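On clarity, I found the account of how folds are encoded harder to follow than it need be. For illustration, here is how one protein appears when written out as sequence plus structure tokens.
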Amino acid sequence: MKVTVITACFNGEEVIKTAIESVLRQSWSDLEYIVVDGASTDGTVEIIKEYASSYPQKIKWVSETSSSVYAALNKGIRMATGEVVGILNADDVLSDDRVIERVASAFGGSSLVHYCGSALVGKQEAIGNKQLAIGNDSTNELTNSRTNELLQVLYGDIRFVADRRGVGLDELRAEPTLRHYSARHWRPWMLQWGFMPPHPSVYIRRACFERLGDYALDYRIAADYALLIRFLRKALLRTRYLPMCFVDMRVGGMSTKNWRSTLLLNQEIVRGNREAGYFCCLPMLLPKYAFKVFEFVLPRLGNVFSRKDAKSQRG
């Protein structure tokens, strides 16, 4: 099974090397890596060219202006030839060298498939920038999801590490965890309340993009959230949680830059739910921040106890 990993980047010369190397070091050989650069003006393109010339059978790349990161990701999805597609941000790295091997193995089996909501999957189509569902459990072309046991979406956990630039892959992977973002207890109905599985851990069959559409370009920050609402809640794609860390993610990012970006993120989450037919409002999203506190606190407690154990062993 071929797996495609897509990275969108712009002026990322300080981080793109670790992302590329984390993909190239994967043990799974049937792997396609697509890098979509937004016409960077620093040394990013030269770095991509260097790796692409060394691995021409594995790396595809393009450098041209894109209107947004989501437009770049859509471009990468259209270039993809893998059966399964995942996204790796330019400043993130795959957590170890066997991540894609485990992803391919999970898609190769179907015994632990989770059915999102009902057993019926409706046909959907894109209308302009809005991805609207047509059909329900009693109209249009309905398909019983249990007649096809193929896993369609896989997701898991990620961890946040310090935003260290210009360091090697092994050094970044060795960084202590600042926040552990787990989807172990996540369920599709939680999308209505601001909870989503970590997007960098999500791998989706390419055929699902062809049938349901790609990232909506009229979202600035939360097009990934809106896509998961359509795929996992509305279309009821068959999913599985894989209990492992997929990605080491540097802290920061557009959605957490300041209070304005946080507000815009939540406004777009509300909009994505409402466009899919689910009631949502800003107060419904407040509880998620209480859970985020625990995601930051628990790794710190683990680090404290680890240091205490190390001291006791030396003593």
Observations:
- The chain is about 35% helix and 20% strand.
- Residues 287-314 form the longest helix (28 residues).
